[in-house]
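DNA ligase (Streptomyces rishiriensis), 708 aa
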Amino acid sequence: MTTPDAVIVDAVAYAQAIEDAVKASAAYYAGGTSVLDDDAYDRLVRAIAAWEDEHPEQVLPDSPTGKVAGGAVEGDVPHTRAMLSLDNVFSAEEFTAWTASLTRRVGHDVTRFSVEPKLDGLAIAARYTRGRLTRLITRGDGTAGEDVSHAIGTVEGLPDELAEPVTVEVRGEVLMTTAQFEHANEVRTAHGGAPFANPRNAAAGTLRAKDRAYTVPMTFFGYGLLPLDDTGPALAELLEESAHSDLMTRAGAYGVNTTATTAVPGITVSTVEEVLARVAEIAGLRASLPFGIDGIVVKADLAADQRAAGSGSRAPRWATAYKLPAVEKITRLLAVEWNVGRTGIIAPRAVLEPVRIDGSTITYATLHNAADITRRDLRLGDHVMVHRAGDVIPRIEAPVAHLRTGEEQPIVFPEACPRCGSGIDTGEQRWRCVNGRDCHLVASLSYAAGRDQLDIEGLGHTRVVQLVEAGLVTDLAGLFALTRDQLLGLERMGETSTDNLLAALAAAKNQPLSRVLCALGVRGTGRSMSRRIARHFATMDLLRAADAEAIQQVEGIGTEKAPSIVAELAALAPLIDRLVAAGVNMTEPGATPPAPATADGTDATDDGSAPAVADAGPLAGMTVVVTGAMTGALEKLSRNQMNELIERAGGRSSSSVSKKTSLVVAGEGAGSKRTKAESLGVRLAAPDEFAALVADYVDAGPGTEPSA
Ligand SMILES: NC(=O)c1ccc[n+]([C@@H]2O[C@H](COP(=O)([O-])OP(=O)(O)OC[C@H]3O[C@@H](n4cnc5c(N)ncnc54)[C@H](O)[C@@H]3O)[C@@H](O)[C@H]2O)c1
Ligand SMILES: [Zn+2]
């Protein structure tokens, strides 16, 4: 209930709203997919009710308000006693108010409540004659339902024969458990049918379907037991006078399934506080239940109290549904991402148009595997029913196929591992990178060897795969332990390439700390962040000694990122130690280490001496943006190397031009950034001019100190 109700402005909109609601209800109760999720439907009905309050003389006969099933369903088998809906409460306050009105109607405080889960299926009346199940009837409009006796034998928990030869009517909910729902959709799609949107929908559709080529099981939970016309007078009276909880015990003894068999059995309690405690308990178990519930039903347990409270035309006054937040919403599928897990499993993940479900905004949902996508015929742009319960990862239940516009696009499956670029083993339902558990290693080594990190020439992706597959390297440090013989033993590895690779590896050991950090792949720190950290701490030792608070001194690192960087570095400690042992440089040339903190925790520089952070260099205090192609002395530098150069010279590199930019180095072909700099009056420099400005820093290659 986070979205406000729609407001109906005139009679035309009112009539349209009624038509929409009736159509949605008809689909909802018949097992079709409603174009509205429950929240949207409830909001629409509330808007209709609000308009009717203002215009009581214009209420249309089709209006869903005040009717069982919104008046959208009919039936031709009369019920012995009306099968009603339930009124709702949404909070402890509303519930307490409800008990107060119950007290008024009954004439005294109700001191025995029955509390049971509100099962999310559909109501059914099962008639037993001398112990044999003879007829199944849906709720219909409440006074008459539809005969669905064809479903006898497919509903677990509703035995063909009771333990006693009694003539009674059992009422309860038919639903599909999560497992039954998945099975039903498998069978259904195998028969060419469209998958059901959710278990409730599947149960409604399955119960009403006649002459299907297949049957799929459902489950029944009883919550009512009453006499039929030919029930013997003694039993009839007993049933009329029994408390709800006793009727449930009796139903169980007859062999009917009830909530007593679940993790959330119906119980009786005597106070409002106890009811609320049980509500909280059931709500807490909701996500772990093997079937859906959408609330908790609270009933006056004693027959006398129920009689005294009576019933309205739509709902009894002696019971109410304490509704839980909806766990399903309709939203759109925008994209599918493919992520590689620790074991190399490649799993699709749905990117959704953000939608609020049960208090959180959902933007991703699991999609299990590729076959699952195909089976459910999901397409990009589809409206989809998304389910989220508790902390369980949200999942897409099904596309709302009749909302398709024709603009939907097929979902493209990856042809290579999205992490390491190797092949994909599609032999099983769950796709897997051919490198399996080593996928991550291949990817992280390839990344570490990349041009902007350790820049190890000759160590491309294929070579990395080769090294990993041969078992020669198991982590980054292993690269530096490779021997000439080991390399020569590899396929397509001649003397020259071996020596070149060894030389490249030796040179890589002299890369500055910023690049080593980046190569380590510390989560949350890309290239520029690694540079900022390295310049701030100057040495790996000082960085490793820093706590979260100290790391927050680095620009751009906040309270969230800092502890995670500390944790990552701690986890990487053994690897860092091995890199140090292998002789890898762990200092940042040109950076001055921060001054140590004094005993009282303040910076030593607080006494007015020079600030610890190096502010020397020709670019001190400047923010510099590079655009276009570099020429002259800078020609060979990649964009990343240019940024390194700027930072060595005391500046700050940035990729976008703003009023805060101090200087834009505009090379050949510079376009919009140059124009923007001009319009903002930001200083521009040609590559040669800039090269002269930072001349002292240009040649400061890996591991060398600036000549200044
Ligand atoms: N999405 C749509 O288009 C659409 C259309 C119509 C209705 N709806 C939804 O249906 C709901 C209202 O419909 P309703 O009248 O079928 O249900 P309800 O919420 O009014 O509840 C009454 C029903 O609860 C069930 N129930 C479950 N456990 C029970 C228990 N322990 N004791 C007694 N009854 C129990 C019974 O089937 C009973 O008929 C609304 O929440 C609405 O959002 C949605
Ligand atoms: Zn891979």
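Confidence is low (pLDDT under 50) at residues 598-614, 702-708. The pocket of nicotinamide-adenine-dinucleotide (ligand 1) is lined by residues 24-25, 28, 34, 36-38, 41-42, 69-70, 85-86, 116, 118-119, 122-123, 139, 173, 223, 297, 321 (CB under 6 Å). ok done for today
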